[in-house]
Design brief:
The structure holds two protein chains of two kinds. Chain A contains 20 helices and 27 strands. By secondary structure, chain A is an alpha+beta fold. Among the domains of chain A are: about 180 residues, Aldehyde oxidase/xanthine dehydrogenase, molybdopterin binding domain (Aldehyde Oxidoreductase, domain 4, 2-Layer Sandwich), CATH 3.30.365.10; about 180 residues, Aldehyde Oxidoreductase, domain 4, CATH 3.30.365.10. Chain A starts with about 20 loop residues before the first helix and ends with a helix. Chain B has two domains: about 110 residues, 2-Layer Sandwich (Uridine Diphospho-n-acetylenolpyruvylglucosamine Reductase, domain 3), CATH 3.30.465.10; about 110 residues, Enolase-like, domain 1. The chains are: A alpha+beta, B alpha+beta. The structure holds flavin-adenine dinucleotide. The site of flavin-adenine dinucleotide has 28 residues of chain B, from strand 2, helix 2, helix 7 and strand 10.
């Protein structure tokens, strides 16, 4: 890990709430989202989806659809190559079913036609001969031997015998001797939990416009969190070379992890290749819910032992996650994150991934962590109630700190959990009086964060402005933050920098916008690209002054002689150097390409007050405060936005959001009416407190902040409900019918 | 699909009667257009009634108000007179959708869409409102209570169009209230609902009461026994418990993604209790 990047400094621009660069376009409706792309001669693509949860596809007769006037191409799984790589094969089979439809909504065929009405009519003419198979949509049923098998032959060797073939992998983390630890405890609590699958709920549906020409080149415009990864997947599925496929990411209307893979993109490309014309596919909301990534749904057992003064003696978690109809590694992250907040002598987590007839899981903010940590923080709270101990004190007593060997292996460097807990304890919210019937809950949260591959080009324009070219779609304000970091390093005003997100042909590979990595990793690359440009500019000044390049340094946006021995020259500003660049060696730019390490884990603590209506089971969120370590908040408003957004999505998860399957295995609520994300009037203002414990792995101390915020709300609200209503629920969401039932009313 | 902007109720009725295929009346369109977009219905003929003279006005009549079938609920909500006389009807109508939806949606559309969860319907039924109906053979009046026939079904005959709804006069010391339960605080569909309309005696006891429940049966349910339980009382706790039990007894809800049978039943009683207390206070009652 590169943990020596950070240098303390006085910031001039970083930390300012500057105007966002995408604001005007977005509020005037001018921003170009996925569905806004058009091309001459464009066809409308539509996808036919399985109405069955599980069915063998005996045959597909597309002849009538192909013969319909106006239909230019029809596609089925048989048109796509058989992939050798298991990962790509799963992605492709999810985009277009091959032998079996694995879930309600699974794509089985697609058409491209001159208009939407023709495309719709063509779908009705496709005859799919299904052999309906027994299905399973519940993780606890699917894990048992004898359950309908979703896909055969996918089980890894490390899965213990005696389980269904649906169990594809097993993992185990931890250290110490839990049995000995439990024996030393004054009290042990063990509980069973279940959490429903939730959807990322982005407002913008998936959209893609593909144009494949007869000479084998292709353009793809789509709404994604990672155009380079889209290129990798689509090139593999289409059998193309990466250089021949250019992918351009649109402005994005929300992703939260759900737009880190492909669904309709390869379908649009394959249709375009067949039809010889551009093809656009835009999903409707029903398709988004039925066929794009929800989270895993889970079944978990958590056991914690504690001494009466609040020290955890041992902890254990058994996690059973289902990421739908394909193998899925999310349980590994849950098993690693579960106890990460605590300094434990004896800890063990076990995870199983189980296939069910549901859509393939896609990442959702801190994938796998909210569920496991919900279970852990609930049991911890129950122990606090049992011993009548203050929940923050107990967490402080057990908190991981610098030097703690984490439950998943690594030893922590500087981390912010203790500072975050102390800030929460000091905050007026924690001691504000509650009215009878109201309850206050708290929870810690954790996320690993990620660095990854990043490329940045920073161009010094001759008028003294700067263009930063990076390759990560901006889902949380990264263009503003990147511009701020470039401006800080170069010593010029923020307004002189413009950051754009490049297509795949304009820059080297960039990992997906995920893992809260962009402000951290692309920010680091930007700072280093700026330093490279500064090096070039110092060289140009040296050349003009006729002194050695080493005798020039950069100060407050200008080249200056380094010390009295270098000679006496007035400073040359960036603009002055840029203006004469054509005479001093040509255009000036800085680049940086890196696979960044040292992302720096992130902790958060949430406090929430709720009131449960004992006659209806409805939970009202009264007050909410988020405490989170940002390392350094480059643009505090965006950091607060991430913290607030995470809290709100977590509130929805805790109280109402869920994938509901009927006995027929079909999704019953594929729309925003019955899949209930919180609306503005459901929420109090989410207050935020940003802590800044510098991350040693970033020049400015930045840590990712995008994901941790969704982790604590689940348990925080459950703990608050428990203290408001005197009942402890162990299943999410805590929807009114479930709460009323638990109240026994 | 044909679109007709009818100039008279008669023209609308005749066109609808003459069409052999699927027809829809277009009032605010907040159900029709959504259903068309979702592909749930593909009408052959859509008859817009908003251009019919007088159909979007509210007129005083015999101490009550005649509300035209195309009066948007936002306009209804700003009408001082209706709001004072029938606050429960107006609050039900105003719960529908959002500000944008309010600007278009109508009570008649809510009634004729015939969802068991329609928010305007329980209040209208509790108010003994009467719909005026134009048909190919002329006009008739029909109590609103008799119009819903089941989910998506009404008792209106082919070619019939509601042109207005009469909210009757009511004595002093009378009022009403409507409450619904939704898991969120707006933009949702009632899991259970209750409208209560009360008339009080001079001594503050209840003289007459009508309790109507929504979303707990295929159509709205008039809970007669619940209404009777309130008569002669000042809504003491025992009375309210009895009334709630009477409400629960007439619920015949379904178990679905929005709520269980037990939840809907229980909640209908709870809402009726709370609505009764609001209506009682509005009518000037004090306990
Ligand atoms: C975002 C949104 C939120 C909503 N929220 C709610 C809510 O909270 N509560 C609720 O109850 N509803 C809700 N609705 C549904 C809808 O807004 C209401 O049912 C509304 O009252 C319908 O009125 P309308 O004038 O728009 O009806 P339209 O859509 O014009 O018509 C509805 C139906 O009634 C028939 N019809 C209309 N007028 C007449 C007439 N005069 N004579 C005979 N038939 C007629 C039509 O043929 C059609 O079948 C919501 C809808 C949307 C889009």
């Amino acid at each position: 890990m590169s943990l020596d990047e950070y240098r303390k400094r006085e910031f001039k621009q970083v930390g300012q709430r500057v105007r966002r660069p995408d604001g005007v376009d977005k509020v005037t409706g001018r921003a170009m989202y996925g569905a806004d792309a058009t091309a001459p001669g464009m066809l409308v693509g539509r996808v036919l989806r399985s109405p069955h949860a599980h069915a063998r596809i005996r045959s597909i007769d597309t002849s009538a659809a192909a013969a319909l006037p106006g239909v230019k191409a029809v596609l089925t799984g048989a048109d796509l190559p058989v992939q050798e790589d298991a990962f790509v094969r799963d992605v492709q089979d999810n985009c277009m079913a091959r032998e079996k439809a694995l879930y309600d909504g699974h794509a089985v065929a697609a058409v491209a036609a001159v208009d939407a009405a023709t495309a719709k009519a063509a779908l009705k003419l496709i005859k799919v001969d299904y052999e309906v198979l027994p299905h399973v949509t519940d993780v606890d049923v699917a894990i048992k031997p004898g359950a309908p098998v979703v896909q055969a032959g996918r089980t890894l060797e490390n899965v213990p015998a005696g389980m269904s073939e649906n169990v594809t992998s097993h993992c185990e983390f931890g250290h110490g001797d839990p049995a000995a630890g439990f024996a030393r405890a004054d009290h042990v609590v063990e509980r069973h939990f279940r959490t429903a699958a939730t959807h990322q709920g982005y407002i913008e549906p998936h959209a893609a416009l593909a144009s494949v020409t007869s000479d084998g080149k292709a353009e793809l415009w789509c709404c994604t969190q990672g155009q380079f990864f889209v290129r990798t997947l689509c090139a593999a599925i289409m059998g193309m070379e990466a250089s021949q496929l250019r992918v351009t990411a649109s402005e994005i209307g929300g992703g939260f992890g759900g737009k880190t893979t492909v669904f309709i993109e390869p379908v649009a490309l394959a249709l375009s290749r067949k039809a010889g014309r551009p093809v656009k596919i835009v999903m409707n909301r029903d398709e988004v819910f039925r066929a794009t990534g929800p989270t895993v749904h889970t079944s978990m057992d958590v056991k914690i032992g504690m001494t009466k003064d609040g020290r955890i003696t041992a902890a254990e978690a058994h996690l059973r996650y289902s990421g739908g109809a394909f193998p899925c590694g999310t349980v590994d992250m849950g098993a690693q994150a579960a106890f990460a907040a605590y300094d434990l002598e004896n800890v063990r987590t076990y995870g199983w991934n189980v296939m069910t007839n549901r859509p393939k899981e896609a990442s959702y903010r801190a994938p796998g962590a909210p569920q496991a940590i919900y279970a852990v923080e609930s049991v911890l709270d129950e122990l606090c109630q049992h011993f009548r101990l203050d929940p923050i004190d107990v967490r402080l007593k057990n908190a991981a700190r610098k030097g703690t060997k984490s439950s998943y292996g690594p030893t922590f460097p500087d981390i912010g959990l203790v500072a975050t807990l102390e800030a929460a304890k000091r905050h007026p919210h924690y001691t504000a009086p509650l009215k009878p019937g109201q309850g206050r809950g708290i929870s810690c949260g954790f996320w690993f964060n990620f660095g990854g591959n990043s490329c940045v080009s920073l161009n010094i324009n001759t008028d003294g402005t700067v263009g930063v070219t990076e390759g990560n779609p901006d889902i949380g304000g990264s263009r503003a933050s990147i511009s701020l970091m470039a401006a800080e390093e170069l010593g010029i005003p923020y307004e002189r920098v413009r950051t754009i997100v490049a297509d795949t042909s304009s820059l080297g590979y960039n990992d997906v916008t995920d893992g809260s990595r962009v402000t951290f990793a692309v920010g680091l690359a930007t700072i280093k690209a700026a330093r490279e440009a500064i090096r070039v500019m110092c060289g140009r000044a040296a050349r003009i002054w006729g002194i050695d390049a080493e005798a020039v340094e950069w100060k407050d946006g200008a080249a200056v002689p380094a010390g009295p021995n270098a000679g006496k020259f007035p400073p040359m500003s960036l603009a002055e150097i840029a203006a004469v660049s054509f005479e001093t060696g040509g255009p000036i730019a800085g680049h940086h390409e890196v696979n960044v390490d040292g992302a720096g884990v992130s902790f958060g603590v949430h406090i929430v007050d709720v009131e449960v209506d004992r006659e209806t089971g409805a939970t009202k969120v009264l007050r909410y405060t988020v405490f989170q370590d940002a390392g350094k908040a480059v643009h505090p408003s965006y950091v607060e936005g991430q913290m607030q957004g995470g809290a709100v999505q977590g509130i929805g998860w805790a109280l109402n959001e869920e994938y509901i399957y009927g006995p027929d295995g079909r999704l019953q609520n594929p729309g925003f009416l019955d899949y209930r994300v919180p609306v503005a009037s459901d929420l109090p203002m989410i207050d935020t407190v940003i802590l800044e414990i510098p991350n040693p792995g970033h020049p400015y101390g930045v840590r990712g902040v995008g994901e941790t915020g969704i982790v604590p709300p689940l348990a925080a609200i459950s703990n608050a409900v428990s203290r408001s209503a005197g009942i402890r629920l162990s299943e999410l969401p805590m929807s009114p019918p479930r709460v009323l039932k638990a109240l026994g009313a | 699909m044909r679109y007709l902007a009818a100039k008279t109720a008669r023209e609308a009725a005749e066109a609808l009667a003459a069409e052999a295929g699927v027809t829809r009346v277009l009032a605010g369109g907040t159900d029709v257009l959504v259903q068309m977009k979702a592909g749930l219905v593909e009408p052959d003929l859509v008859v817009d009634i908003k251009k019919i003279p007088g159909i979007a006005t509210i007129t005083p009549e015999a101490g009550g108000f005649r509300v035209g079938a195309a009066v948007p609920n936002s306009v209804l909500g700003e009408h001082e007179g209706v709001r004072t006389l029938w606050p429960g009807v107006v609050e039900g109508a105003n719960l529908i959708g959002s500000t944008q939806v309010q600007g278009r949606c109508t009570m008649a559309g809510n009634l004729c869409n015939a969802s068991p969860a329609g928010d305007a319907v329980p209040g209208l039924v509790a108010a003994n409102a009467v719909a005026r109906i134009a048909g190919p053979d002329g006009e008739r009046d029909c109590p609103v209570a008799d119009i819903p026939a089941g989910p998506g079904k009404t008792t209106l005959k082919k070619g019939e169009v509601i042109t207005s709804i009469l909210l009757p006069a009511r004595p002093a010391r009378a009022s009403d209230a409507y409450l619904r339960f939704i898991p969120r605080t707006e933009m949702d569909i009632a899991v259970a609902s209750a409208a209560v309309s009360l008339e009080l005696n001079a001594d503050g006891t209840v003289k007459a009461a009508r309790v109507v429940l929504g979303a707990v049966a295929p159509t709205v349910v008039v809970a007669d026994a619940a209404g009777k339980a309130l008569v002669g009382t000042k809504l003491d706790d025992d009375t309210l418990a009895k009334m709630a039990a009477a409400c629960e007894a007439v619920c015949r809800p379904i178990d679905d993604k929005r709520g269980t049978v037990a939840f809907r039943t229980k909640t209908a009683g709870t809402l009726a209790k709370r609505a009764a207390l609001i209506a009682y206070a509005r009518a000037g009652g004090s306990k």
